[in-house]
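Catalogue entry: protein
Contents: sequence, fold tokens
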Amino acid sequence: MSSSPVADAAPDLAGEPTATPDGIDDLLVTRVREEGAGLPAPRIILPEGDDERVVRAAGVLADLGLAPVLIGDAGTVGALRGEDGPRRPVLPTVEAADLAHGAAGAVIRAKAVGRHAGAADSWLSDPVHLGMAAAAAGIGDVVVAGATRPTADVIRSALRILGLAPGTALLSSSFLMKLADGRYLGFGDCAVVPNPDAAELASIARATADTFTSITGESPAVAMLSFSTAGSAEHPDLEIIRSATAALSAAHPDLEVDGELQFDAALIDSVARAKAPESTVAGHANVLIFPNLAAGNIGYKIAERLAHAQAFGPLLQGLASPVNDLSRGASATDIVNVALITALQHLTTQGRDRPSGADPTQRAAARRTGATGTRPQRSHSPRRTITRS
């Protein structure tokens, strides 16, 4: 495989942003430019280069200054791009066969040794597996896939080829919810872990808080949701939530977290004053952790369908490299938004590796507390959100 198409696809993220195209979330564009200042543009592997929506999304991403890399046939990509294609820079495209014969193929062969030995040939011809291998080989930074494939295909290939991040024992997910009034909330887990135990619930909460802050730049205030607030009921299920909250607070004292809280106590100031007056989270939570998958999946769909919230996700958490899944009904705009989120997950990880870096939650907390590092006393007032033009 020639390395030039991919190498040429990594300009610096610099300069003044152009107008955000219709349907693309302007916060995501702004955040990518903020976090990417001085860093190479994230190389976004898009395995489904034979799909018109994906090709159109790649064009928008390139126009925004990112570095999409399509897996597919260059002629097909050019044809799918339509009339504007000849007047625009060529989108970096690599054929699956070239990947299979290069470093990505070597990754797949190594991963297939042992119990997957018979699967190597099928993986080497599968663009999704090749996309994961391209990220593992350093050819790309992140992967966005699923426009033509089931979620299970994307998750399985990511786990087989990339695996979990060091020190991570759980793959989970979250949704970024944009409410009708412009606020953003993080919901977890709504797509992956059916019945988490206390340790898993704590892991989901921490990962969702990091994902939320990576995307929005806001400090997380994490509410562990249930049908009880601050001991108002007793049930064995509540012990899982209380244990998870205690473990999370002990492991991450910098993280604002409280539980158990009912939904209204977590979000509504007047209810918080009555039910949990001593909580520093109640009334202004922006990260909501559901006790199980049933509650989370139902909750995000209610918010989406009845409250007209926009749902971005499911966003995968815990993989060695950022990977996100697309709905098979995704539009080109949806693909761009998910790609921007995936780029942010990569950029904030890169930010941690800078000499003065910290994790996303610590950096957000530093912005809130100022140079003293002292956390201010919180009043039960509505949480401020990012102002957007």
About this structure: The radius of gyration is 21 Å. The chain has 16 helices and eleven strands. The longest strand covers residues 310-317.
